[in-house]
Amino acid sequence: MPLVALMVGMLVLALMSVPASAQQIVNDLSAKPTGRIDFTSVTPKNKWELVHRKYDKTPTPIWGTLYLPEKLDGRVPAMVISHGSAGPQQKDVDRWVRVFNQMGVAAFVVDSYGPRGIHNTMDNQAQLSPAANDADALSALKLLSTDPRIDPKRIGQIGFSRGGGVAMDMTLDAFRKGIIDDDTRFAALIGFYPGCSQLWWEVPPPPLTGAPLMLALGEKDDYTPANLCLNAADTMRRDGQAVEVHMYPGAYHDFDNTRPYFKYFPGATTARECPQAILDVQHGTYYHLQNREPYASFQAMEADYRRCVVRGVSAGANLEQAQRSEADVSTFLRKAMGLPPP
């Protein structure tokens, strides 16, 4: 093989082997980039660490992909998209980026797994604390607020399953302050089929960020059952949180997927049979959600959950109900962000 060809081949192999973390990391978006953007977050071990800023402050390189609407008429709103336990999905782009961009809203799809070397957490949620997903969404909020094309007062968040739990957490000012030092906050929150067996909250009622919350629930969801989220929504409303709930008949977990499918996942873990609990992130106390009777200790609550977590869940697309959810999300966001009607 000629020396030049050999050198070119070696160069190509070297470039292919460069890790993603070697890409340029940005701290602000003043240069107006699009596409994949590498930035930093942190990786708390649990939500208590996040709220109390007890986490390791060493930056964690992560990335997201920014999609802008075709027409930028002044500063536009934006949505942070947080994925579920299966990691980023094509439907995040095919459905939700499309919906937001058509509304004149930018979309930033955050990947919390790939940069950390995780494929998915369906069979083992202990691979990464959901607190890291919270931290990533808040770090994305900070980053987007530096973009001269984006209105920092109209940045929302939407999440699916584990990412839907992020939306619920973002209603509490305690989580926001775990990452953000100024008054930057989400303007609207949307949670699709979040896990609601444990509600991270405060007793007495917590200071709230003021962002309205929309929950999109599947009637037949056996992974993160809708009835648990209805109970959680009642508690949140009682304590001053604006919650709008949409129930989708005949819909399973992941009903908004754009790929027609139905599948049983025998290894996936679910807390659907567990007693619902309130975990007070400020005071380190734990309660039964229905009667607010306290657990004796964290260990007592943990023992409850060790006994009740089971495996085996269903998921599948429902194209009709997914289209309904598009319309509901659009209506909710237009109201929350002061957008004109379609």
Report on the structure:
With 342 residues, the protein is α/β, with parallel strands linked by helices. It has 9 helices and 13 strands. It has helices at 3-16, 47-51, 90-102, 130-144, 162-169, 173-177, 226-238, 298-308, 319-337, and strands at 35-41, 60-67, 76-82, 106-111, 150-160, 189-192, 198-201, 213-218, 243-248, 262-270, 277-280, 285-288, 310-316. The strands form 3 sheets. An 8-stranded mixed sheet has the order 1-2-4-3-5-6-8-9, sandwiched between helices. Helix 4 crosses helix 5. The model is unreliable at 1-21 (pLDDT under 50). It comes from Ralstonia soli. Residues 1-22 form the signal peptide. Keywords: Hydrolase, Signal. InterPro entries: AB_hydrolase_fold, Dienelactn_hydro, FrsA_esterase.
Question: What is this structure, in a nutshell?
Answer:
The protein has 342 residues and is α/β, with parallel strands linked by helices. It contains nine helices and 13 strands.
Which features would summarize this protein structure in a list?
342 residues; Dienelactn_hydro; 9 helices; three-stranded mixed beta sheet; Rossmann fold; hydrolase activity; eight-stranded mixed beta sheet; 13 strands; alpha/beta; FrsA_esterase
